[in-house]
Design a protein that fits this description.
35% of the residues lie in helices and 25% in strands. The protein is α+β, with helices and mostly antiparallel strands and 269 residues long. The strands form four sheets. It has a five-stranded antiparallel sheet, with helices on both faces. The protein starts with 6 loop residues before the first helix and ends with a helix. The chain binds magnesium ion (MG) (2 copies). The site of one magnesium ion has 6 residues, from β4 and β5.
Length: 269
């Protein structure tokens, strides 16, 4: 069942999404070589609980942590552990929050230190595909227009592998609601978009082949060919005026820039 949200509900979802992005901003400020997934998970949970909210993923179908942390060939749903990140890693960090009865959901892929240019290009293209998809998220367009935008840009223009098994979704009182929002599909097909629909759009794109597998931990999804993967996610509301992006990557990117500048200063001294 698809639920269309009122303006009041959209504002509550926005508050949850902004708290998700504050947690990801705390991650951005500290992530780097020598830092572990467990450390950033603890920091993110602290930010969420400090605001009287609850981590949205912890306990969801038994998931044990606040963040999904997926490194290099891992696509999504990685479980935080004590292993340190290394120079050259790319790390997808996905976070959900439940506050005032509504969920927020957003994700960002971080480059640790010096990442090979081929992989940096994957990150840029995946992020750009998210915004091309959001451009299609207008009243009167269809889910297939969103899906096609990601697939066409990533697969046809850039020859990457778009993951099929995992998709975006509706967001509201539940973390995952109808409709599914695949990252592949045909223009003009699928649900017609109406004002009040709130969806998470989340391209998951592999540098190599699109095929994925699940690790023995029962959670982690990884690229079968072990090539790197990228993942960016916004939660958006469809409004008469166009897409309203409820999450905020800008604050995350400001913290990444600040983090890099601080490291440069400490390296010089
Ligand atoms: Mg997410
Ligand atoms: Mg999601």
């Amino acid at each position: 069942m698809i639920t269309y949200k009122t303006d009041e509900e959209i504002e509550l979802i926005r508050q949850s999404c902004l708290l998700v992005c504050d947690a990801l901003t705390a991650v951005a400020a500290m992530i780097g070589p020598g830092v572990s997934g467990q450390q950033i998970d603890t920091a993110a949970e602290q930010v969420i609980r400090d605001h009287g909210a609850v981590p949205g993923f912890k306990g969801y179908r038994g998931f044990p942590a606040t963040l999904c942390i997926s490194r290099n060939e891992q696509v999504v749903h990685g479980i935080p552990n004590g292993q340190s990140f290394k120079d050259g890693d790319v790390v997808s960090v996905d976070c959900g929050v439940l506050m005032n009865g509504y969920y927020g959901d957003a994700a960002y892929t971080f480059a640790i230190g010096n990442v090979p240019e081929k992989t940096m290009e994957l990150l840029r293209v995946t992020k750009r595909s998210l915004y091309l998809a959001i451009e299609q998220a207008r009243v009167g367009q269809r889910i297939g227009d969103i899906s096609f935008a990601v697939q066409n840009y990533c697969e046809v223009d850039h020859h990457y592998g778009v993951v099929r098994e995992l998709v975006g979704h509706g967001v509201g009182k539940n973390l995952h609601e109808a409709p599914d929002v695949p990252n592949f599909g045909k223009r003009g097909k699928g649900l017609k978009l109406k004002s009040g629909l709130v969806i998470a759009i989340e391209p998951m794109v592999n540098l190599g082949d699109k095929r994925v597998a699940q690790a023995e931990d029962g959670w982690t999804i990884y690229a079968r060919d072990h090539a790197p993967s990228a993942h960016y996610e916004h939660t958006i509301a469809i409004r008469d005026e166009g897409a309203d992006i409820l999450s905020d990557h800008l604050r995350i990117e400001a913290a990444i820039k600040n983090n890099a500048e601080l490291k440069e200063i400490s390296n010089k001294n």
